[in-house]
Structure formats: structure tokens, C-alpha cells
């Protein structure tokens, strides 16, 4: 809780002193995002790994601090305004790590950041190729490392499709991208499940699907 308060004070200072065009400090903002995501993903806050009694005790006393800092990261991202493009594709991995935390409200609040990144890069370069390449590379790594689940896949699909379909220029390319990532996620999750299967043919078939 002490660290959370310190990070929030740091965030206030960034908004007040280092956000406008004349004083913007890329490295400071970069440090903030990496620090906040490291805080959110640390082992001691992953409540689903604890017994129900311990989880209830922590929630009762502190609430879910991952959710608190996650909402703060989301707000800080949107505060960046025209500076957002400076954080693409570098911030795709950390934001992905955050959205993969198995907390539904946190996921719903932070998955839309991906659409914002697509929109931002598309506005700047007429495509979102850098974002797309980065998320596919990082997703492969994260799912193989044990993160991600069926609920995440469903939320990712639903939230991003809704956002893309409302957008004049991203409707078609956005929908193609979402379908691609969701089908990749499906194959990666299948592959992860079957990796320890005795049946070599099953493993090989899943590997072929991923490739």
C-alpha cells in the first residue's frame, strides 16, 4: 500500500509538471509505466493464487490493489494525448501483461487501450503494422509462459470488435486483425493444454496449427 501511494504521487507529479509539450519527459513517463506494471504483476498481489481465507482477508483490508493501479495506468495512458505515438510499439508488451491479469473488471477497463493504440498508429502512419507485429510476438511469449485463458480470449474479441465496428476507417482492417489474434490465441491455448499430452500426434497437430 505504501508503494502504491508513492507511485500515485509520482503519477500526480508527471501530470502536473511533465506532460505539456515544453516539459514532456519521455523517459520519466516510460519509467512510470514500467514501474506501475511491475507493481501490478508482482507475485504477492496475485490473489487467485492464495487460499480463499487469505484472499478474503487481503481484500477486506486493502482491496484489490491491482485494480486500483490498473485504472490509474489506463488514465495515465489517455492523459498522454498526442504523445501516445512515442510509446508504440514499446508499451504494447507491458499493457498486454496487465490485461492478462485474471481480474475481469481490470481486463474490461484496460483492453480498450489496444484499440486506442491501433487508432493512434493508424492516424500517424495510415496502418497499425507495428502494433500488430508487437502484440502477436508478445502474446505468443505470454501464453507460452502460462498467462491467458478462455475468458480473456472472449473479452478481447468482444471489446475490440465493438470498438473497431464503430470506427469509420478501422472497421474492416480492425475486424481482420481481431479475428487473426483471437484465432492465434485459440491455437496457443490449445497448444499449451496439450503440451504435456502423451500422444505425440496430438502435440504435433497443435504445433502445426500454431505455425
Gap between N and C termini, in Å?
Answer: 43 Å
Structural Rg: 18 Å
How many separate helices? 11
The residue ranges in which pLDDT falls below 50 over 5 or more consecutive positions are none
Count of individual domains: 1
Give the total of beta strands: 0
Helical content class: over 70%
Helical/strand content category: mainly alpha
Profile the largest sheet.
none
Mean pLDDT: 94
Approximately what portion of the residues adopt beta-strand conformation? under 5%
The outline comes out as: globular
- Can you write the helix and strand succession as a string? HHHHHHHHHHH
Fill in the keyword field for this structure:
211 residues; single chain; mainly alpha
Question: What's the structural blueprint in terms of helices and strands?
Answer:
Elements: H1 2-17, H2 26-41, H3 52-62, H4 65-79, H5 92-99, H6 104-110, H7 112-125, H8 129-144, H9 150-165, H10 171-194, H11 200-210
Amino acid at each position: 500500500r505504501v508503494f502504491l501511494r508513492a507511485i500515485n504521487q509520482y503519477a500526480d507529479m508527471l501530470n502536473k509538471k511533465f506532460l505539456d509539450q515544453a516539459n514532456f519527459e519521455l523517459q520519466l513517463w516510460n519509467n512510470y509505466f514500467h514501474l506501475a506494471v511491475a507493481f501490478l504483476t508482482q507475485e504477492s498481489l496475485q490473489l487467485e493464487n492464495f487460499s480463499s481465507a487469505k484472499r478474503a482477508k487481503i481484500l477486506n483490508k486493502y482491496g484489490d490493489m491491482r485494480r486500483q493501479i490498473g485504472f490509474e495506468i489506463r488514465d495515465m495512458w489517455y492523459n498522454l494525448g498526442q504523445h501516445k505515438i512515442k510509446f508504440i510499439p514499446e508499451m504494447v508488451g507491458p499493457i498486454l501483461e496487465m490485461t492478462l491479469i485474471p481480474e475481469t473488471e481490470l481486463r474490461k477497463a484496460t483492453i480498450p487501450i489496444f484499440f486506442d493504440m491501433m487508432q493512434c498508429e493508424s492516424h500517424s502512419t495510415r496502418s497499425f503494422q507495428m502494433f500488430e507485429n508487437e502484440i502477436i510476438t508478445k502474446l505468443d511469449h505470454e501464453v507460452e509462459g502460462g498467462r491467458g485463458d478462455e475468458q480473456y480470449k472472449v473479452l478481447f474479441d468482444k471489446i475490440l470488435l465493438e470498438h473497431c465496428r464503430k470506427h469509420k476507417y478501422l472497421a474492416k482492417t480492425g475486424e481482420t486483425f481481431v479475428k487473426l489474434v483471437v484465432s492465434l490465441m485459440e491455437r496457443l491455448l490449445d497448444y499449451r493444454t496439450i503440451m504435456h499430452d502423451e500422444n505425440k500426434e496430438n502435440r504435433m497437430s497443435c504445433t502445426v496449427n500454431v505455425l
